[in-house]
Amino acid sequence: MRSRFESGDFGLLHEAALAGVGLLVTLRMTVESDLEAGRLVQVLEPYSASRLGVYAIFAERGRPTSAARALVEHVARALNGPGVARRDW
Domain-by-domain residue ranges, the chain? Predict the structure, then answer.
């Protein structure tokens, strides 16, 4: 499907969707507050992508650094929800 409006800038696409220019395909977490406030509505729900996982992969040569562990813990807290799995270091 071709679009009459395309951009690689999420902020611009988000503003366009808020202005009613068209559809926005994005992660739900990026527009959750707009959906809750009624500024955006979900359409074509049967065609929504399934939930995707977020994985942290480390080199086999040793334990992750404390900075890498801190980053993974931060992301896990930010995305905390159903299906979030933890691995003990």
Answer: 10-47
